[in-house]
Amino acid sequence: MAAEAVIVDAQVAPGHDGAAELVLRLRHPNGADEVVSVDAEVGFRLMQSCGVADVGGLAGHPWRRMINGG
Amino acid sequence: MFDVVIRNGSIIDGSGKAAFAGDLAIKDGRIAAVGKVEGEAARTIDALGKAVAPGFIDPHTHFDVQLLWDGAARPALEHGVTAVVPGNCSLSLAPLRAADRAKVVGMFQQIEEMPPEAFTQAFDWTWEDFAGYRDALAGKLQVNVAPLVGHSVIRLWVMGEAAQKRAATAQEIGRMQDLLRACLDAGAIGLSTSFVDLDEHGWPVPSRFAEYAELDALCAVLGEYGRMLQCVPEFYAMDLTIARIDQLAELSLRHDIPTTFSPLFDSAQAPESAPRAIARVEEQFARGARVWPQMQTRPIDLSFSLLRPSLFFARLPRWVRILRQPLEARLASLRDPETSQKMVADLGPDGGQLMMGHLVVRGGDAAPAALVGRTLGEIAAERGQAPARALIDLSLENGLDVAFLAASMGHAATDRIGPMLAHPLVHVGASDGGAHLASFATYGDTGYLFSEFVRASGALSLEQAVRKITADTADIWGLKDRGRLQPGAHADVVIFDPSTIARGAERPVFDMPGDGMRYTRDAVGVDTVLVNGEVAFEAGRYTETRSGVFCV
């Protein structure tokens, strides 16, 4: 598999609309970090596709799991 | 004889220079004199011990609909706001063909959370073009209105259903340009667009289907008038936001127009994000571009109910599993003693005191009035329960329709945000007034600017804070003769107590058409507000005056 972005941290934070969002810190193969926020629906789906029951377990999973469901 | 003289006040003229003791005279809706004023007046207002400042300008609102039955944009006016900019985020109520109203109403409801009665009972929908919307507001306004025209509705007018399906042809882009010119001629202050928003079906709004060439062509028209482009960038990802800043800079330089984007807020989880955006803005200003980031003053509260799964519970796997079930199964699980006992046990020995004890019960839904505004910790203690148990039981007792709020969970670090608000290239705004009605109060950000960032932290002086929301805003948006207390300027004036001005507590009210609910905040410390020389609010009451105008 080609090198790909990996989730290195996941935290819950309030979004612009007052709903809780998942703030994900990604690390790209070149070492660059990026932060992306996703809403509850996407966040829960990501947790499901990564097979984790706690957001703390998302670290280390490939970012691609959000797109292709793992 | 003057119409009004305000005497003995501390004049803060909006320029940023130090306050000075003096008077302010008004004649025919404009400021006639500032300083020591001799002569009589039809009305004299004593402002001893108070600040006298230009009316505040709110550059990011969604009051488009509310203004049709509430020309004061309540409670904006009582907070000292004398001019609002509606039409943000690609949506306005004109130009809009009658056949497309339902579609755009859906988009507005998605953003504003306004009840459907607001669009069907509260006003006669008499217009299609922008001039018609302007005329529908004429004579009703208590605040001044500087409206943007929405890119999405322009697209919809020209392309119909295809506006949410494809890129525009060259011919369609030409028609959009003509339509935008007509809107600007009719009083629009600029164009708004969005790269983020969705309609009520979860489908991207029309502006999101535009290619760069379309936006560039529309900005060419803005350049003919020197008008503003407002945009909602992909604020969920700072790298994308920075790419948009660069794109806005190119458009600004190419067409010599001001641009602004919102929201920009600070995040404890990504503390580098907002400073990165501001640094990029500095780079682009250094090139000569105008790209104004709008930052709100108020912190972001987090709220949820058990009606919908919330990431608030994301570290409690059992709660997530149960709350993501369909409603009936969710209710059955919560009612099951064994299951709910396990859920409570998941919180550990303190029963959820640390995680949930600080939550506040919100009003406006099925929550018993006696519990509204109280913490879950207090309520749980009264009931002799653990907080987690009280949260479950309270929710079950009220059909799950009880909202809980965790205050100031985001954009809340005053020591970080203060210097950002004070930054000369950061535009204080992004209130979203008139939107998110059922989620949180979007009012009182100006009061919070003074209470938190002037009095509490000292990040800005009183004069700097006034300048930020008056003269700076007027200059950024090109509002002629607004935002300053100087002879010849329009007499938009707020008299307030600098030692007490603040925002009141959030509270639910049912004053939307159809008894719709919204959260609001009362003003604190604002004595009198004049709009174009007429008293529109004083002694805690709105007057009957209708002196607001369309202004550019």
Explain what this protein looks like in three dimensions.
The complex is a heterodimer of chains A (70) and B (552). Chain A has helices at 40-50, 65-68; strands spanning 6-14, 20-27, 33-38. With 70 residues, chain A is α+β, with helices and mostly antiparallel strands. Chain A has a three-stranded antiparallel sheet. The radius of gyration of chain A is 12 Å and the shape is globular. With 552 residues, chain B is of the alpha/beta class. In chain B, α4 crosses α5. Chain B is globular, with a radius of gyration of 24 Å. Chain B starts with a strand and ends in a 10-residue tail after the last strand. At the A-B interface, β1, β2, β3 and α1 of A face β14, α9 and β16 of B.
Short description:
The complex is a heterodimer of chains A (70) and B (552). By secondary structure, chain A is an alpha+beta fold. Chain A is built from two helices and three strands.
